[in-house]
């Protein structure tokens, strides 16, 4: 295949054809479950095994008609459960696709960010520091390229690469990571054809889904209830045989009780809430890489954010230039028709100290202004060769580029960085140093990001080890404006209202940090710098953290120090980051949040959430949604426990009191079709309380259901049980036919379960507010449930297997009145418990 032109890349049509030919660039490690696998898992659930056992017993008793109908219900429930599982599976699959590495490809001559799985052989990709290589490729161009190939080789040493030669040093491999530098590569192998693909089979046994604390809590609760169910099932079976005789009937009564107690909805609720919650976050432009982060969102007490691009728009523009005593405000590049000559060197060396093809917004701002104001002058040097780079470091917040040209006998070194760092490189005398720092402070007080610029000449043969070995001369200062996002002040205020501290951590000048913090609504009375932070003893650092909300001139390593110090104080920390060096802090934080646009692959892989739009307001929206998900999950659990209580009561009490049985396995199967959607999709779609962001964060480690909420659930379920059993007893006492009494008792049970949906939406009394803000899903589920109830009661062919007959009009009115009394009773119980507990 001929190599594409480096300045064009593949066309969209050609890329689509190659994708069709070679398939997606992914390994055979996808853990998505096939349809048959899901069906097999569902069919092996204890609930369905009990249904099958009940069907077998009906066959043994000679009631084949009842058995066939029950088995039909088994198929229906399996179908509904499989559809729900598939929906969840599709939601998780979509998230996996979104979270796959991205690639910057040349398509139709334009750089385009595409999913890594859509990379095809022949693609031209541009890589930069922190990117993960999506496919095996040849290096066409490189600049100080170094890779971490430990994923393939097991060696932790950095491997340097270049475009020259034909060996492995001119190739990059899928899965490896750019430690530094930039490269233009041409893909020659994707998916299983890559080096990583050849060893991919060893990855298929890896399970990336780790169980969260909440999932573990629900699993433990499910096991305990299942054990209780088995024990009660055996007790009821023995009681039935002892009191009434009939082994098969006793087994059916025990199976009915076991089905009523078995909490198979709990795991379903958990995965549905987390998966669909992650989809809701994705719609809000927040990608969830780990589902456990969703439950942690409601517990976040501290939110650590960067300034640039998170609080601000990340749209840098040169706003002011300072050379000596001259000041020049720059409204915009187009308005500056004629840049005074005295400012030319400042802009010239700022460009030379930047990357030739910059991605950083500040460097792009330098290039944009220089291309406008220095065009046609001798201050632009497209023919110079970048020979060496000196990177920014925690010890010296400055970077330098050494350039070589044919005309000059000496090399040119250009440097830019923090004003104090540049002043240190230039060894300014005290009076000049004070003047430069005062000018920088004036610019920073305007909310500008301030950089100093210097240059040096070097005629030696070997490059010095450090920047201090050059004789730099100070050129001037540049102030760059990055406007605050319009939505930030309101979002910060919302965080404070929700009991969440917002800490700003930035590499900017302290005065710039203070100006932006005040605009954002953050307390900025005291600002701690990175150097001050590093010098503090641990005991003093904990005291400072209680008072300081803005940290300036901090490095990624110091961000990690701050995260760990906050965690040591018991805070649950959410942390934003974008660079390679931010990865430790993102991974250490309870909720690591990576930037989607300007973040590196390393940062995204270390984070639990990814902001696709680098928007601070999206973080606040994610916290609000996280609280809503947890609140709805808690209410769903309260409802699920409550609706099982009357089922248990109607299974046990008639046996103990010698009444005709109300429930059979067929009735339980029907109720499962009602309870499952109600406890999962209905509560998941609920909009939640409008006061969620006015509450304090949930404490980490709090149980999903506290003792008070368990009492609430049991009280609501107990009241429903008493009402249904009382109705059944009264009907039998009035010599009502057993079939009609059973029909009305079952109708009352289903109606009270439906009423419980409204009352379970909050833990406090709501009265008429319980019916407000309902999602359309609620109406669909309730309508379908009540329609199905009418069908099995009024249509003789459907009513017969259930042992039902069409009730009288008076019976229906009585059930409706009981439902109204039930609602008033449920709200009264909540009111009494609220007064009892305050």
Description:
This protein is an alpha+beta fold. The chain folds into four domains: 12-26 and 100-199, Distorted Sandwich (Calcium-transporting ATPase, cytoplasmic transduction domain A), CATH 2.70.150.10; 286-312 and 485-614, 3-Layer(aba) Sandwich (Rossmann fold), CATH 3.40.50; 317-333 and 340-375 and 396-458 and 474-481, Calcium-transporting ATPase, cytoplasmic domain N (3-Layer(aba) Sandwich); 629-838, Calcium-transporting ATPase, transmembrane domain (Up-down Bundle). Helices cover 51% and strands 16% of the residues. It has 29 helices and 22 strands. The strands form three sheets. The protein has an eight-stranded mixed β-sheet, sandwiched between helices. Strand 13 (398-404) and strand 14 (411-417) form a beta hairpin. Helix 9 packs antiparallel against helix 23 (616-657). One of its GO terms (cellular component) is endomembrane system. It catalyses: Cu(+)(in) + ATP + H2O = Cu(+)(out) + ADP + phosphate + H(+). Keywords: ATP-binding, Copper, Copper transport, Ion transport, Membrane, Metal-binding, Nucleotide-binding, Translocase, Transmembrane, Transmembrane helix, Transport. It is an enzyme of class 7 (translocase). It is found in: Endomembrane system.
């Amino acid at each position: 295949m001929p190599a594409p032109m480096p300045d064009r890349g593949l066309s969209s049509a050609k890329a689509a054809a190659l994708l069709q030919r070679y398939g997606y660039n992914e390994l055979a490690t996808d853990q998505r479950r096939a349809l048959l696998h899901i069906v097999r898992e569902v069919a092996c659930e204890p609930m369905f095994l009990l249904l099958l056992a009940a069907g077998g017993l009906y066959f043994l008793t000679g009631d084949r008609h009842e058995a066939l109908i029950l088995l039909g219900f088994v198929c229906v429930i399996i179908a509904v459960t499989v559809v729900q599982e598939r929906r969840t599976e599709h939601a998780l699959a979509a998230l996996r696709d979104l979270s796959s590495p991205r690639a910057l490809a040349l398509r139709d001559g334009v750089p385009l960010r595409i999913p890594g799985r859509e990379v095809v052989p022949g693609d031209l990709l541009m890589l930069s520091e922190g990117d993960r290589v999506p496919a095996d490729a040849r290096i066409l161009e490189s600049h100080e390229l170094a890779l971490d190939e430990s994923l393939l080789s097991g060696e932790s040493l950095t491997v340097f690469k270049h475009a020259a030669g034909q060996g492995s040093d001119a190739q990059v491999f899928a899965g490896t990571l750019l430690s530094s530098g930039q490269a233009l590569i041409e893909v020659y192998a994707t998916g299983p054809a890559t080096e990583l693909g050849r060893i991919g089979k060893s990855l298929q046994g890896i399970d990336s889904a780790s169980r969260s604390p909440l999932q573990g809590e629900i699993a433990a609760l499910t096991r305990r209830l299942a054990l209780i169910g088995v024990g009660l099932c055996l007790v009821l079976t023995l009681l039935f045989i002892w009191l009434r005789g009939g082994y098969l009937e006793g087994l059916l009564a025990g199976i009915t009780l076991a089905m009523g107690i078995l909490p198979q909805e709990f795991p379903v609720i958990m995965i549905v809430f987390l998966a669909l919650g992650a989809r809701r976050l994705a719609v809000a432009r927040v990608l969830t890489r780990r589902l456990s982060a969703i439950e942690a969102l409601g517990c976040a007490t501290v939110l650590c954010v960067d300034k640039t691009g998170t609080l601000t728009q990340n749209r840098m523009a040169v706003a002011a230039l300072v050379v000596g005593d001259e000041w020049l405000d720059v409204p915009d590049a187009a308005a500056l028709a004629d840049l005074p000559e005295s400012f030319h060197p400042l802009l010239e060396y700022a460009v030379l100290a930047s990357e030739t093809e910059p991605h950083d917004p500040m460097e792009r701002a330098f290039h944009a202004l220089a291309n406008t104001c220095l065009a046609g002058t001798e201050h632009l040097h497209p023919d110079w060769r970048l020979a060496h780079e000196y990177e920014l470091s925690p010890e010296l917040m400055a970077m330098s580029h050494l350039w070589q040209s044919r005309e000059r006998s000496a090399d040119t070194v250009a440097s830019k960085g923090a004003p104090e760092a540049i002043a240190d490189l230039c060894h300014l005398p005290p009076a000049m140093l004070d003047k430069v720092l005062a000018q920088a402070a004036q610019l920073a007080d305007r909310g500008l990001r301030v950089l100093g610029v210097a240059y040096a000449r070097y005629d030696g043969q070997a490059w010095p080890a450090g920047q201090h070995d050059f004789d730099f001369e100070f050129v001037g200062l540049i102030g760059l404006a990055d406007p605050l996002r319009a939505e930030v002040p309101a979002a910060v205020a919302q965080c404070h209202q929700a009991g969440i501290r917002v800490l700003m951590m930035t590499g900017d000048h302290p005065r710039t940090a203070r100006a932006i913090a005040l605009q954002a609504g953050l307390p900025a009375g005291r600002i701690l710098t990175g150097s001050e932070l590093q010098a503090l003893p641990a005991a003093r650092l904990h005291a400072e953290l209680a008072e300081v909300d803005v940290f300036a001139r901090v490095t990624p390593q110091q961000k990690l120090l701050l995260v760990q110090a906050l965690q040591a104080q018991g805070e649950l920390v959410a942390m934003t980051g974008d660079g390679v060096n931010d990865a430790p802090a993102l991974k250490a934080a309870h909720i690591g949040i990576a930037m989607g646009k300007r973040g590196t692959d390393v940062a995204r892989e270390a984070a639990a959430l990814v902001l696709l739009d680098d928007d601070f307001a999206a973080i606040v929206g994610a916290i609000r949604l996280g609280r809503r998900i947890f609140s709805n999950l808690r209410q769903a659990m309260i409802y699920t426990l409550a609706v099982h209580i009357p089922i248990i009561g109607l299974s046990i009490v008639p046996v103990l009191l010698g009444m005709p049985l109300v429930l059979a396995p067929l009735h339980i199967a029907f109720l499962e079709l009602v309870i499952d959607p109600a406890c999962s999709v209905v509560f998941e779609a609920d909009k939640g309380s409008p006061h969620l962001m006015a509450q304090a964060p949930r404490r980490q480690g709090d149980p999903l259901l506290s003792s008070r909420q368990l009492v609430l659930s049991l009280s609501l379920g107990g009241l429903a049980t008493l009402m249904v059993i009382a109705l059944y007893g009264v009907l039998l006492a009035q010599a009502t036919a057993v079939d009609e009494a059973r029909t009305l008792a079952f109708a009352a049970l289903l109606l009270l379960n439906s009423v419980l949906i409204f009352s379970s939406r909050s833990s406090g009394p709501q009265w008429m507010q319980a019916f407000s803000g309902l999602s359309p899903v609620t109406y669909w589920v309730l309508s379908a449930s009540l329609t199905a109830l009418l069908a099995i009661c009024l249509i003789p062919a459907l009513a017969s297997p259930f042992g039902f007959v069409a009730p009288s009009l008076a019976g229906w009115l009585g059930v409706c009145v009981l439902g109204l009394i039930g609602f008033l009773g449920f709200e009264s119980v909540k009111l009494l418990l609220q007064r009892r507990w305050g």
